[in-house]
Amino acid sequence: MSNDGDIWSQLVAEAREADRDDREAGTDVDQGRLLLARLLAFRRYNRARLDRLRRGLDSETRAVFDLLPLLVHQPVNGAPGGDDPHRGGYGIVNFEANQHMQHALERFFPQAPWRPGALLGRPVIHSLLAMGSMGTLAQTSRSDLDLWVIFDEGIMGTDQHERLQERLGQVERWADERGLEVHFFPLTAGQVRRADFGSVGPESAGSALRQMLKEEFYRTHLLLQGRVPLWWLAEAGANREDCLRVGEQLLREANLNGDDFIDLGNPEPVVPGEYLGACLWQIVKSLRRPFKSLLKLTLLERTLRWPESTLLCEELKARVQEGADDDSLAADPYFIMVDTVVGDFERGGLPDTADLLKTCFYLQLLAGRAPAGAEILRRQLLSRLAESWGWSAAEQARLDGYLRWPLAEVVAVGRRIESYMDTILDGLRQQLGSSQADALDPRDMRLLERKIRTSRSMHHRQVPLLPVAYYPGNLEQAQLRVRESETGWWIAVGNSEGPVAGPLESIDLTAMCAVVNGWFGPATAVSVEGGQVTSAGLRRRMERMARLFSGARPELVPIDHFAAEACPQAVLLEVRAEGRPQSDVPGTTRLSEQWDLLDYGRQHLCLLDEVLVWTLTTWGTVVHRRYRGSAGLPRLLLELLQQLHGNGYLHLEAVPGDGTAESLAMSKRLQVTLEAAGNGLLAADGQETALLTTIADYNWMLLRRDEEFRLVGPLDARATSDLLAEGGRRLVVDPGSVRWSVLRWALERHRVGCEEVFLFRDEEIAAVVCGAEGQILLLEGMPEAASRLIEQVGGREALKACYLRTDTGRFSECGLPVARMEKADLIAEVVEPERIRLWVTGMERPARSLDQAATWLLSLWRPGAERSPRLRLRHPVGCSWDMSLAERLRLHAQLLERIEKRCRQALPGGRRKSPGRGINNGRGDPM
Questions:
Q1: 925/482 Cα distance (integer angstroms)
Q2: Are 334 and 295 in contact (CB under 8 A)?
Q3: Which of 13, 56, 307, 770 has the fewest CB atoms within 10 Å, i.e. is most exposed?
Q4: Angle CA(899)–CA(884)–CA(780) in degrees, nearest 5?
Q5: Of 3-12, 189-198, 416-425, 595-604, which gets the smallest average pLDDT?
Q6: CA dist., res. 753 & res. 774, Å (int)
Q7: DSSP state of 413
Q8: Sign of the alpha-carbon torsion through 548, 550, 551, 554
Q9: Distance (Å, rounded) from C-alpha 896 to C-alpha 890?
Q10: 169-198 pLDDT, tens per residue?
Q11: Per-residue pLDDT tens for 819-849?
């Protein structure tokens, strides 16, 4: 054996020479030597790719990579997952330690002793394999490391399996903290053979990829430790039966140990039932890595157009077994993919697709840099590719400057990629019809389609997203120009570039579009052409938007978050108010703090113009909705409460939509209402709760019972009184509503479960009556008249819990002497709720009807001197049934209204003398 070269090269050369001698001699092929030659060819290829992988990493991540197999294999003191070595889940079959591991261990865990093979129990892991772009021409500084952990389900119990998953998660986080993105995928050999890869997750394709993923695994995998896939010992293109015969042959070979290999099945062509899932998955992956995903999607189109094509993994194996691994490109998985697919499309008359594929492959290689030595090699390979494709020096230089491209050119490439992918997807849907996704789990289908739709801005009222999120450079622009035209609003960057987005319906949406897509930053200059907005004002708005929404994109959200419906995470309300009304002084305006901006002045105006609501959802989308004036505000309050409910913490902020004092004041007013609604209604514990507010002279109630929210309104004074008098609910009064300040003041002091009366001087409301079960009645007039009415309805006992608010704002208990009650004209004797007897003064027996009572009353008065009758309530002696004070007051008001009506009807010609000012009794009209 020659001493030149490495040992593997010499072994492979000898095996190939022996095989060639046997063939030339016309004898039977020595199957043992042939299997050994294939094994040695794989190991040499595997080692060459491992060397390339390590060269493509910097010093820190290279050491992390070197240590990963040891951390998976055995517990290491102080290392992630090494805290409990007795719980199992350790051990890789045929584990071989090396100096790289030892140096990495000393670097990260110097206190841990170097004890290779320190393992308790039988190994549970067959193989540790890497797959993907690592170790290939496509490896960049942004490449992640996907590791398949093939474990023995026969000896790993449930507890060990859970422990293994937990430990691998700890190792992932440890590696990520040191700059190497790692994803472990624990699988059994049976799962790989069946192409069963679970459900769609943040890094798992689940049922979306089956045979397509398995083919990619065989084409790109690297063996880090453990058993070699049996597939490598079969000849290229061998079927399942051929591989099984190879397994049987191993049992008869003395120089090969069958225990060193594992059967993971054979790669199979992608079947039509998997086409749609594979396409959707690649579109989802393209949201962050479009170049690599487009390469894989072209594989799917190749299968669709030429279903009999050779699997690329079989082409790779053929080249490795024939010795092509000496060429850095000929045996590179990604080069084989691009070279083969480009050739197929060019020969098939699809030069545009071939050109897009070459461009994306070239840009993928430029997406991240590598250490100096690997970078030099990569640049050489790129030049070789450009030359082989016949590119001019100018074309190559243009692509090399990708990171310096203008934003419009970046967007154009993104749209070209999206257009290609959409064409493939539409073609699949038309071709496959109802059987388009037989192999795709319905849940996985829902997750994929939701993520694609949100990332393509296909949802109603979603802020449009442009295909630039994958761009590795900084998208923040030095200058943004916002311009209005006849068709809408447009966004341009710099001084000379054309528009990159538009037309958009409003300047509001234009500003948020620039923020969400990441074009606006702290140093960005903004100019406005057209409209009523200044450049400085628009920039201030965009700064405020950026605090909540900058860079919000669905592609950054893990795909499993799309299993639930989108929920709000942050809400920004931009409030605009109308101009202030004229004051009593001509030529001046007034914005009195004593008036409610939603029920302003004597005309009860709502000064709200509109509220523009921006919502960031758990799907990473930003949606917008506009609510106008007094008509839209109640609906806004209801929808916000529904969104707040059950979503835990939600950032909610109301800000002025322009620079006027009215908008600033209105934003503060709405913030107060929203906080009261959130604190009052959302904290309810099963009891029905209501928020009472006033908008433009009408009252509204937001009701919540359990999970249901209702909006009741608009309500006039009578309807409001009826609702308040019903009771049975907890009432929250809008702190910003001036009309209800007295009621709010009383409720803050009311003792729950007690019947109390609150009297007020110099207020429109003279008394607030709070029942024990939540009933509320409001009486207008003077406190003395209110107390007289309470005594008339038999509520004298309730006045013992009576409180009077003085001019100083304090309450004095029973501080108001009860006014002397006037002689009653009628007495209503309440026997039970539906049985009432009316006694008129001077009559020996109760009236048989209301008409008779009205006639008797009118007979007591001189014609033309009629007035409002005085009515008193009482219970008959011995009656056990009782009413609350609030119920008595309501009954009193209802009876009095009906008696007055009959009296008017009984008068000749329906005449009636105005009785003057009376007590309102909560109905809003004087008696």
A1: 55
A2: yes
A3: 307
A4: 60
A5: 3-12
A6: 8
A7: H
A8: positive
A9: 10
A10: 999 999 999 999 999 999 999 999 988 886
A11: 566 678 888 888 776 778 888 887 778 887 8
